[in-house]
Amino acid sequence: MLGFTLQETDPSGGRAGVITVRGHSLLTPAFMPVATQATVKALTQPELARLGAPILLGNAYHLYLRPGIGLIRRVGGLAAFMGWNGATLTDSGGYQVFSLAPLIEVSEEGVSFRSHIDGSEHLLTPESAIEIQHAIGADIIMAFDQPVGYPAGRAEAAEATARSDRWAERCLEAHRAGGRAGDELLPSVFGIVQGGFEKDLRAESAARLSRLAFDGYAIGGLSVGEPKEETFDLLAFTAPLLPEERPRYLMGVGTPADIVRAVLHGVDMFDCVLPTRLGRNGSAYTRSGKINLKNARYQDDLSPLDPECDCEVCATHTRAYLRHLYKAGEILAARSLTYHNTHLYLRLMEDIRKAILAGRYREFAEGFLEQRDDNG
Amino acid sequence: MLGFTLQETDPSGGRAGVITVRGHSLLTPAFMPVATQATVKALTQPELARLGAPILLGNAYHLYLRPGIGLIRRVGGLAAFMGWNGATLTDSGGYQVFSLAPLIEVSEEGVSFRSHIDGSEHLLTPESAIEIQHAIGADIIMAFDQPVGYPAGRAEAAEATARSDRWAERCLEAHRAGGRAGDELLPSVFGIVQGGFEKDLRAESAARLSRLAFDGYAIGGLSVGEPKEETFDLLAFTAPLLPEERPRYLMGVGTPADIVRAVLHGVDMFDCVLPTRLGRNGSAYTRSGKINLKNARYQDDLSPLDPECDCEVCATHTRAYLRHLYKAGEILAARSLTYHNTHLYLRLMEDIRKAILAGRYREFAEGFLEQRDDNG
Question: How many Cβ atoms from other residues are within 10 Å of residue A266's Cβ?
Fold first, then answer.
């Protein structure tokens, strides 16, 4: 079972805590690098350990389709499969099945779909999504839900949210049935609040899920294309409706600035593909905003990616060299930018935690947001 | 200037020595990982240092076209540009201009061609190839030659070889003109023996170049598509014609087995894209031959790439995991396989050297070649 100790709640709303799960201790607020297919794209597991990643996020939809859960179970679970000594979390695949798979059919039972890899037919239900995640063996698993896109009609949002909440209950039952009494190896399970962009639906979903004994609560369906102010308006509305004593996980968010803002609303956990995806696309976050090495202005720029950064890449390479690697299609460009971006995210989480523990998080957040350009 | 001390010549013909160049000491026989575009594909410079790479090989043709020699000169040369503390060598671009560039026109003056990147027009001459390499600033540079393909007519081979030898003389003159008397920063320069697949042409080329005061001698134009036995027949014929007291560099060769065989003919230096290229294509060398992870037999194989290997990848990952990464198109597959392959090549060179110094190289080579399958 998942332990969560709130060490400090800052006057700003920021929370610092410790999650303990199956022998792992995770300091919060935590950022979870995304290892969709059992690898954080372009990084090694020893690098992630060196960077201080507390937990990696795999994806049940992807891993179920490839390499398949049989192999992962046989080697002792996702962490063993990857050679990773830290904690792991799997997303249930709810989001992926709706965004990636062709020929989806949704019923009360679950979602039938075709694989985006080979077209094979599959059915995911709340029960099978939990069973798959038990086989993959992450420390924290997620309920199987039907996300709501943006924009969405109210009726559609209401239907998907009510169904997600019913599925959440089935997930919890399947989760308990999958474990044995007193089974310490049973992972922890989080519910996911949906509700689209309707506050009353968000409130209903939060209330329904709060009555169920999830180990933590995620806020899903944000940062799916809506204007940023709407994201934060809904986050500010939804977060306080969740049980205070359980971790709050804002799924798929976001830029460094998004994370700094979301912490003000008491969010404890984050994941996002931005540091890795942008890294592969030639972009780097710096302490003063985002730079894109595709821009010709960096052609002769002999300064490091981020003059304020102490990572190995910034200690070794110039923007001009990294731009050359990117233009030449070299893997070292993706490696270097991903490493730097992930370092920056993980250092940011440390700084956020320190500021909360020191009771000066609002000052930190305001200072941070002021010095950024509007690139995030 | 380049120093070369022959420490031991084994009864088999294998030579162990030390090259000293601009403050670097390189133990021979040496393998030079290929950093065509100022990066060894998929590896970092700190990894290459950790793996014990003594020297990296860049390519003047590629670097001249992108990022351009102005930038590299401004930062202090190739090693500084890459953030590499070891030695560097550049190939002149002779081979690349003939194999990559469209619309080539060869005259006694040099080669006019269009860039394979943007179609722009350029002229490379022996003089400009040396000037470009001086600007790139590697520790060892190569003469500009016109390679002969396989198969080639005798007249064509004779013409290209005679021209290459005349160009070699012009290269040496341009090299001296580019330096100042007593200039310790002047790089060392190697001549390249051509001659196609005609022994008398090889003998003429070796004799002509040996009369010129090159710091070392390369054997070019082998391993360009000819049967393996022809490669080694010509190598066995050509190598003894080169000055004994200067290093011998067999360009672009080869598999681990090729290297073990070539050392028997007194070769001191090697470069090859195989460990990196095969790594990106899902193949790994092992102590008993080559394996290709595309093969379905590795799907559930929980053994390391090479059970006899002590590299980080073999200590951490299974073939099943690496195959999954390769199938999923993940960068970590290329990284891991390239790292392992490069580790294997560099350990092999250490083993070769030890065997020569112990006077038991023939035994080593025979044992090595016996236990390999015919995959190299």
Answer: 22
What integer pLDDT is reported at residue A375 of this predicted model? 62
The top-level CATH class assigned to B3-271 is alpha beta
Placement of tokens 């100022």 in the chain: B38
Cβ atoms of A140 and A89 closer than 8 Å = yes
Closest-CA distance, B260 to chain A, in angstroms, reads 30
| Interchain proximity B331–A74, CB inside 8 Å | no
- Please answer whether residues B247 and B28 qualify as being in contact, where contact means their C-beta atoms are separated by less than 8 angstroms: yes
Of A181-190, A267-276, B168-177, where does mean pLDDT reach its minimum?
Answer: A181-190
In this structure, of A184-188, B171-175, B247-251, B292-296, the range with the lowest mean pLDDT score is A184-188
List the domain boundaries for chain B. 3-271, 279-370
The answer on pLDDT for A372 being more than 90 is no
Burial of B87 (0-12, 13-18, 19+ CB in 10 A): buried
pLDDT of residue B183: 59
| pLDDT of A184 over the 80 cut | no
Helix (H, G, I), strand (E, B) or coil at A295: coil
* CATH code given to domain A3-272: 3.20.20.105
A336 in reach of chain B (CB within 8 A): yes
Tokens of B16: 């162990």
How far is Cα B326 from Cα B333, in angstroms, rounded to an integer?
5
Give the A window 31-90 contacts with B, CB below 8 Å. Answer: 37-39, 41-46, 66-67, 71, 74-75, 81-83
Write out chain B residues lying below 8 Å of A37, CB-based: 324-325, 328, 330
